[in-house]
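step 4 of 6: structure.
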Amino acid sequence: MSFRYLSPLLLLFVPWWGAAARELRVCADPNNLPFSNQAGEGLENKLAQLLAAGLKAELKYTWWVQRRSFLKNSLAAGLCDVVLGVPSTLDSVLATQPYYSSTYVFLERIDRHLNISSLNDPRLEQLRIGIHLVGNDYAPPAHLLARRGLSNRLVGYSLYGEFGVSNPPSRLIGAVVRGDIDVALLWGPFAGYFSKLQSVPLKITPVSPASFMSIPFRYEISVAVRKGDTELHDELEHVLTQACKTISALVAKYGIPQMQEDMARCDSSHAASLSQ
Amino acid sequence: MRESQTYLYVTLAVTMLFARAAFSQIQNQPDDGQWIMPAKNFASTRYSTLAQINTSNVKNLKLAWSFSTGLTKGHEAAPLVVNNTMYVVTPWPNLLYALDLTKPGGPLKWIYSPHPSASAQGVACCDVVNRGAAYYNGKIYYNTLDNHTVAIDANTGKELWKTRLGDINIGESMTMAPLVVKGKVLVGNSGGEFGVRGWLSALDANTGKLLWRAYATGPDKDVLIGASFKPFYEQNRGNDLGEKTWQGEQWKIGGGAGWSWISYDPDLDLIYYGTANPGPWNPEQRPGDNKWTCTLFARRPGTGEAIWAYQFNPHDNHDYDGVNENILLDLTIRGRARKVLAHPDRNARMYIIERATGEVLSAEPFSNQNTSESVDLKTGRIKYADAKSTGFKTVRDICPAAPGGKDWQPSSYSPRTGFIYIPHNNLCMEYQGVQSNYIAGTPYVGANVRMYAGPGGHRGELSAWDPVAAKTVWSVKETFPAWSGTLVSAGDVVFYGTMDGWFKAVDARNGAALWQFKVGSGIVSQPITYKGPDGKQYVAVLSGVGGWSGAIVSGGLNSKDGTAALGFVNAMADLPNFTTTGGMLYVFSLP
């Protein structure tokens, strides 16, 4: 009699105990390639798998659209312990050492032969310049163009889109292909990844100068944990260091334009000392 | 005996004559003891003729009953009282509670839930608030965060219609309380921070059908500017200014949302409302006046057509939305009877504007400010202080800070004292032309706005303003920004709440403290008063801290990150020491 009641209880108990194994809880955007998507196809999806394996943990996602207050609503709210792909200088989180860096770039059709590389190029006064809109703000290079009096040349393309339509940021690349705009100004990873998927050849050129007043156009990218979560931070950093070469290859595979000086990251003294 | 009777009749006749003259003034509206729209009446006075609770007995005010909303975000709404039922709208998920005032303790009659999209929480800029409902002709109308206007049967709680007006995908949301005028439900959108193009819309109160929509930017046909448009000042005249005062196609993302209050003058048949700030944040990126952002519109409610417009802050530099309340008053100013509206703007100036024409009669500061030198009454143009104009640079000591001399929290007006009771801020800020906007794909770590207390070290104030003399009569300092509306009654008592959770009563004549009660959570809502079925006067208020200013508590933000909640956290770091979250309705009466 008592056994008949006991066994279901045991059955309930075992899976609960099994779930107590270590988890790596990651918040990620379900629709934001090349970084992440719900199908696990993005760079950050692959990297999250790598980190989970390194920590011998099970990877658990919380999907949260990366819009305003993303970090507040996800990492800070405790929905997860890790967010990938944050700028290394972001001071509201504890960021690891960078695992790649990239730059804002110009993107144009090769057959246009524009070869624009400088934000100070006088020809920009005559062109339609596509740029991403983050909320109601243009991406950073717009500040320099505004100072030059070129705000009237800018055509904004929202980074946001319908929740059901895939990869809203890629509309800007499509606009270059179609000729809706002459040139696009955008963050390198978008340009690198989506230009490979287009039917016409496109040219990617890092913007110069590298910064304008206090605003850099190049950023190093890190993994973020909550401030004070130093144990997890150190563990993740250890895995990043160990897997440095693998990660570099992964970043290259996603077509992300990297700066020359970053290619040697894995051999740098910082990484080398950590891997000892 | 006979003589005294004659005397009585004469006195009565004179009194009635006087009363009739007084009642013809727009601020003296009939009052049946109910509270059917957030601002109390079309003139938006938030004045009640109830006088049972007065300056001598308010000290005896006791809690009559209370009700928990079960939610922890910012509660900004005014409860409504209609036919012995109280209606309370909550922040997301935007529940509507109906409470039975005929029974002890106000038991629940029904709950209506519109089930708004969960994603809407991610597009609300400043907490998931709602500013209340409006009653008209047997129905309760309000907006949901995910851009629907709903009509609910006031008796049964049954949904009669639900109309979708906007798109959360592009960053739109809805937080304002509708105004119902001549069978039309007037509503506006929120979302300037997402590059949304602002609008005001009218829906058929019976069917929910969209009747007209007036955009704040773009060509005249979109703004509903036509032959009847007669702005008072030259700067607001011309064709398609909503397009030409921008560069290229920037007007399409220009902002100007209509997210706050609407007033109505039935005699002139005009509605009045203001539009929000322009985008993007860095004003260098949007040369021009950026019309019609930060603008007051007078429109015909029937067609939406604009009759006049006045831009408070052309080419806004400081996030000074023009959306604050417009109180309609008939006053004698400099010896002339004037039909005016009083608008305490985010720029810390109290505008007194002739409401038939749009002429500015005065625009004096009601709160500490250094961003403008004056308003030229001949041209209507504000003269900005050059040293405080922003761009792609850091500017220190800008007063008021982005939430303005005051934000949406509405003032009240007493025809007995002739004063406007303004709940306001005393905040300054450091400003950079770069707005921190990190999301994946835009690794952008700009420094951000930091706000702090203005001169005196207090962050809020309640001021009584004389709109005729255009000056402050008295004021009471508050530790935190005074982020609740005010209520004033014929008992000469002003009620308001503080963010640290005190519900207060002061003397309308001199600001003397009369009574206070500590509620469970900070107050960022709108107090009301009503006559209960038992004939007693009650005062009701929602507590539940949150909103932009209170997000540090309701959103669980990190107080070490001063730039969170658009820079407000820096000014509010100590708020969590004073209050915790929790939506609760409190109803008070005399024993």
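step 5 of 6: annotate
 - Chain B has a mean pLDDT of 91.
 - The longest helix of chain B spans residues 2-23.
step 6 of 6: archive
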